[in-house]
Every structure is written in structure tokens, then in C-alpha cells.
Amino acid sequence: MSQKGRRRRAKREGIEREKALPLADAVKAIKERADAKFDETIEVALNLGIDPRHSDQMVRGVVALPHGTGRTVRVAVFARGAKADEARQAGADIVGAEDLAERIQAGTIDFDRCIASPDLMAVVGRLGKILGPRGLMPNPKLGTVTQDVAKAVRDTKGGQVEFRAEKAGIVQAGVGKASFSIEALTENVRVFIDAIAKAKPAGAKGTFMKKISLSSTMGPGVKIDVASITG
Question: Which of 152, 188, 222, 229 could pair with 26 as two cysteines, CB 3.0-4.6 Å apart?
Fold first, then answer.
């Protein structure tokens, strides 16, 4: 067995693949095995009883994690004049209007979240085919089309996470770093899962949260006992 294989096997020791653990125990198990040379991201994944192809079963929204994500998020803002100044002062990495649109059309997309003031949506709208598939299109429901661009920038930089169900009904997101305390990670995961529960669509039938798992960038996955969170 290769060294990589031995390390992977060692990380899995003590974890029963099919056994679901209470949330705090799952977080502890993941933290103990996150021993890479960098600060691994802790991710939560939820398998939901939905079919996102139906509009009444879509799950999408944003949630502010109490302890942030530990990740540096680059934010681009479409704004002019005073709004552009407000965005810069709030910490936006890229601010512009038609010039920013041209930059994106040329293939330079060096940001993780895109915010726009309402008066510039005519400009942003032409970028739908580029930003849409990447999940970067500003959306009023997600708070990324707003008059208060400064608040949107601060919220994003402060640990706000956007979530959206994929085709298979899976929602996943980074909820912190391995360097976070067990308590901070546990609270972040709980808040994220609570936000998903509140976003349950009208068309969802039967069991909504089928499976929840937690993992680190390089480590194994651990199942979370759904009842330990939603019960």
C-alpha cells in the first residue's frame, strides 16, 4: 500500500462509515483527522428530498454564519458614483460599471461574489450567460441586488454563505476551517442546517433532510445524525 493509501486508511480508523454521529461528535472526529499542512476547509453536505428541476422544489438562499467561514472572499460590485465609493469603503475588491462588464466579457472573473446596485442591472443583465452558470449573477432575493451595496459587501466579507440545491438535490457549503474550535464549527453547522430547514420549498414531499455529512478538504466524510439537529 502506498504512503498516501496508508494515511487515508489511518484517517478512517475509528470512523464507522455508515454510523451517524451527533453533531458535536462528528465535528470532533473531522477536526482530529484534519492534519494537512494547510488549514483545511470543513464542508457540510445535505441530501434533500427534492427535485430542483421543478420550480416549487428549489432550495436557494443566504445565511450569515456566526463565526464566519475563515475564507477570504473577493467581491465585485457594479456601481457608479457615491454607491461605488461606498462599496470601496466597505472593502469591495473590484468596483465598476461598463468597464467591469467588459472585463468579465473578456474572460477575467477573479471574484467569488457579485453585487449590483439596481440602476446597473441593465448592464449586468447582458452578462447572464457568463455569470449565471457560475452562480455569480446578482439576485434581489439573495441580497446581491440592493441599494445598500456597502452592507452587502460587509455581509459577504463577514461570513455570509450562499447556498443552492444542485440537480441531485444536494446542498453543500464550506462552514469554517479546521483551526476553528469544536464549539464554533458546531454552531456554524447548526445555523447553516437551520437555514436550509427554513428554506424548505412548498413542493417538497416526504422526508426533507435525508442525509447530512461533514468532511474536511483532505479527510474522510462523517455522517451526522439528522435527529440530533432537527429533533
Answer: 222
Cβ-based neighbour number of residue 9 at 10 Å: 11
Angle between helices 182-198 and 23-33 (to 10 degrees): 130
8-48: pLDDT as tens digits: 444 455 555 668 899 999 999 999 988 889 999 999 999 99
CA torsion through residues 97, 101, 106, 108, sign: positive
Which H helix or E strand runs over 170?
strand 170-177
Give me the amino acid identity at 51: D
Q: Which residues pair with 162 in a beta bridge?
A: 62
Which residue has 472573473 as its cell numbers?
Answer: 109
Q: Please give the Cα distance from 190 to 159 (Å, whole number).
A: 15
Q: Which residues touch 34 (CB under 8 Å, ≥6 apart)?
A: 40, 42, 178, 216, 217, 218, 219
